[in-house]
Amino acid sequence: MIGRLVALTILTLIVLTQSLSAAEPVSGSLAESAIQWPTWSQWRRVLTFQDYNTRIVVFGVATLGAAAGLVGNFTLLRKRALMGDALSHATLPGIALAFVMATAMGMDGKSLVVLLLGATVSGLLGMAAILWIRSQTRLHEDAALGIVLSVFFGAGVALLGVSQQMSTGNAAGLESYIYGKTASMGAVDAKLIFAAATIVIVLGCLMFKEFKLLCFDDGFAGSRGFPVMLLDILLMSMVVLITIVGLQAVGLVLMIALLVIPAAAARFWTEEMSWMSVYATVIGLIGSVCGATLSAVFPRLPSGAMIVLVCSFFFFLSMLFGRSRGVVFRWLRRRRLNRRIDRQHLMRAMFELGESRQSRAKNVSGRKHPSVSIGQLLKRRSWSKRRLATAIEAAAEEKLLRQHGDSIRLTSAGMTEAARLTRQHRMWEMYLIAYAEIAPAQVDRDADDIEHVLEPEIIDQLEVLLEQERLRIPVPEDPHAGEHNESQTGATSNVSTDTEMSR
Amino acid sequence: MSPISTDAIFANLVFAWGWLDNWIVVVGCLSALAAALLGNFLVLRRMSMLGDAVTHAVLPGIAIAFLITQSRSSLPMFIGAVIVGVLTAVFTEWIRGIGKVDEGASMGVVFTSLFAFGLVLLVQTADKVDLDPNCVLYGAIELTPLDYFVIGDKQIPRAALVLGIVTVINALFVTVFFKELKISSFDPALATTMGISAKGMHYALMVLVSVTAVASFESVGSILVVAMFIVPPAAAYMLTDRLGWMICLSGLIAIASASLGHVAAIVVPTWFGYGSTTTSGMMAVVAGLLFVVAACLGPRHGVIIKAIRRQQLAWTILCDDVVGFLYRCEERANGCAHMSTLSSELFASRFSLGFALRGLLRQGQIRLLTDGYALTEAGRDRARQLVRSHRLWEQYLVTETTAQTDKIHARAHQFEHFTERPMRDELDRVTEAPELDPHGTPIPREET
């Protein structure tokens, strides 16, 4: 218990220090340009959304974060987490070309509608190119994404080079699509984001079942008559849509981060896809709001970068403490299993030691179970003294055995449990010899792997099967069947009645 | 828009081309070659996006190096960037292993976080010096010849020297460790059993990828190096199945796209009445076009050859179906069928059916009578073998796999097209030479 607590405390400390360095990356390395801590009134101003600008920005990034989290959830499970990366790069030539063409035709090249149209067209083209490469060549997903990303972006850079020579119109600022300008987000941008986010979230909810099938088993989805290609295109279109509105508001790298990080973080918390979607949406939303708020409170912290950092902070928290796949919980679960296995090994080793002594002495009955020494146990298996001691301690805590100095003795309950475990082990060995045709010298190792996870029902089935083969099962009679309460003898007595019925 | 003619292009080129352009092409080729050599292994190991991730992620390395040294000298920045580049690979691997996160996702998490971190650092320094992320990420290849060393009596651009060294190192690495790289890329488990450290090769590759990426994007811009890591190797992968050839081809494609890219950057915009444009962007575009050409024309895996093969197979099967249908007509004492009957019975479009019928007529397997098409002797042979295969398969499926009688037709229909004589004899033996198939129709005898 104490060991567990200490380990947890140390882990918490590590996480805290990590989180501090992640959240305030600048404080250590930048002593001379330290961040001024804002006053209370500044905090209040931001937190109560008194500034119109803060209100707009927080509202915009919150909806964007939620929608991107939901879409990212699907793309992550479809193993295309970097799709957003490729598609957002793929929009650049469209933006540049739209600007060049609109300006050449004498229109305002920087009007939002024109640029968004260009971005959409080239994003969709990029999507088509990815699908083409994947379906027509033997290249894998990653290469398809990489090719589309770099070639489209190269085309965009080349077109930007042209656009800078335009005599009319000013191309400066087109680059802001790459870095974003979150802090100067306008009401129009926020409305646009809201509209796109609504479409994406509604679509995501309506088509949830279809997307779920697509993510986990597209082959099955196809065989059930779902239009897989169409669903894929719809999903990618949702990515394009949310990317385009996000790009011009928050920039390319932030957009990628919002599509990847919340979903990756949510994966640690649950195995249920519906819950994962909810978590991803919420993490995206909270991360965006926190990041935007921090950047509004502290001067000189770019909001896009802050949102990414807050999200990745959430990611690390999730990776460590996620309820379902987090590192800590997985470690605890594995340790619990290891301890249980050790205890079961101990019980079986004690049973077998007692058994051999009994047969030597031809001493059939005995209310007192023979005691064994730690030295004997150590020789049975290759386990360390400490591990054995831990196992003994755990077993003693459950009143399965008693320890007096060096000698250990099973209690009555312990004897029943040990007999049950030995029986399981030997049943499985017999099964392997009879059905899997494994050499008797090797079955001990194989049985060792599986005996700890055998369910009572499987033992019953084994019994029936082995009975059919007319194999005698060398499991000793439980000498104390009558003495124990139901819960401990339950499995064994079930087996025996079943055997009788099968006869 | 000016008229496009070959003369005009050449005139334009000769007019515009100078010693600068020679060096630009040399620098571009070196950078492309260095990246493409390593890129083969990135593509084969399914880590194509690593180049993109590294070039984004190095930002904090540059910023920290600048903060420590307080100067814009390039060596500390280079070292800082390489360290962070390698860290990107290490973190990605770490998150993938410990957190059991998908490779792409862990890469996405790492590089966006590092980029954001770098951006925050850069903003902190913004009022002291201008360290423009634009300039860091989109180094201008056009300006590389202006930054030169004088060696002997020659002026050699710094970028050419640096990239030349990197190219030589990469080429040496790939040739010296060719076997190790090959085995550890295709089968890491086998590599480990052979005593090759797959992990060691992985990290050596990561270090060189970071060095190449940083050395290149500092002078020629990130977009070029990201493209050259992936596109030439991918194009070469379309053309060959041998790793040695793939590496050589990817090098050639890289050089070709770099040189043609610069020509295109000068020439193409003039068609629309503009001056020359960004070279590195055009190099990436040309590489993309070369990829499309390779993907279409590849000798074994090309899109066109595959389409032709598929079409040929479809026509062979259709011809099989036609003679099989006519044979079954003959069994029912009516040996002829019209085009329209064939079309509706075989679910074939009139176009492809017409094509198949013309082919069969030419081969002399069918002839056209007044009341439709009928089999010739040669055609009847082919049809007999086909129908025999079909019915033997049906019999086999019923007797050996206990398939339902109503389900066997479709399956036998698939098998009949690639069942040769030895296979038929084997089927005949296994099913004990039946006279009738499960539907009760006689199975034709084999020609002796």
From TrEMBL, chain A:
GO terms for molecular function: DNA-binding transcription factor activity; protein dimerization activity; transition metal ion binding. Residues 476-503 are annotated as: Disordered. The keyword Membrane applies. Residues 1-22 form the signal peptide. InterPro entries: ABC_BtuC-like, ABC_TroCD, Fe_dep_repressor, Fe_dep_repressor_sf, Iron_dep_repressor, WH-like_DNA-bd_sf. Keywords: Cell membrane, Membrane, Signal, Transmembrane, Transmembrane helix, Transport. Residues 487-503 have a biased composition (Polar residues). It is a multi-pass membrane protein. Gene3D superfamilies: ABC transporter involved in vitamin B12 uptake, BtuC, Winged helix-like DNA-binding domain superfamily/Winged helix DNA-binding domain. Residues 476-486 have a biased composition (Basic and acidic residues). GO terms for cellular component: ATP-binding cassette (ABC) transporter complex. Pfam families: ABC-3, Fe_dep_repr_C. GO terms for biological process: response to zinc ion; transmembrane transport. The chain crosses the membrane at residues 52-74, 112-133, 145-163, 183-208, 228-246, 277-298, 304-322. CDD domains: TM_ABC_iron-siderophores_like (cd06550). It is found in: Cell membrane. Residues 411-467 form the Iron dependent repressor metal binding and dimerisation domain. The keyword Cell division does not apply. Belongs to the ABC-3 integral membrane protein family. This is Manganese transport system membrane protein MntB. It comes from Stieleria varia.
UniProtKB/TrEMBL annotation, chain B:
Residues 376-445 form the Iron dependent repressor metal binding and dimerisation domain. It is found in: Cell membrane. GO terms for molecular function: DNA-binding transcription factor activity; protein dimerization activity; transition metal ion binding. InterPro entries: ABC_BtuC-like, ABC_TroCD, Fe_dep_repressor, Fe_dep_repressor_sf, Iron_dep_repressor, WH-like_DNA-bd_sf. GO terms for cellular component: ATP-binding cassette (ABC) transporter complex. The chain crosses the membrane at residues 23-43, 75-95, 107-124, 159-178, 203-231, 243-268, 280-299. It is a multi-pass membrane protein. Keywords: Cell membrane, Membrane, Transmembrane, Transmembrane helix, Transport. Pfam families: ABC-3, Fe_dep_repr_C. GO terms for biological process: response to zinc ion; transmembrane transport. It comes from the Bacteria. Its main location: membrane. Belongs to the ABC-3 integral membrane protein family. This is Manganese transport system membrane protein MntB. It comes from Stieleria varia.
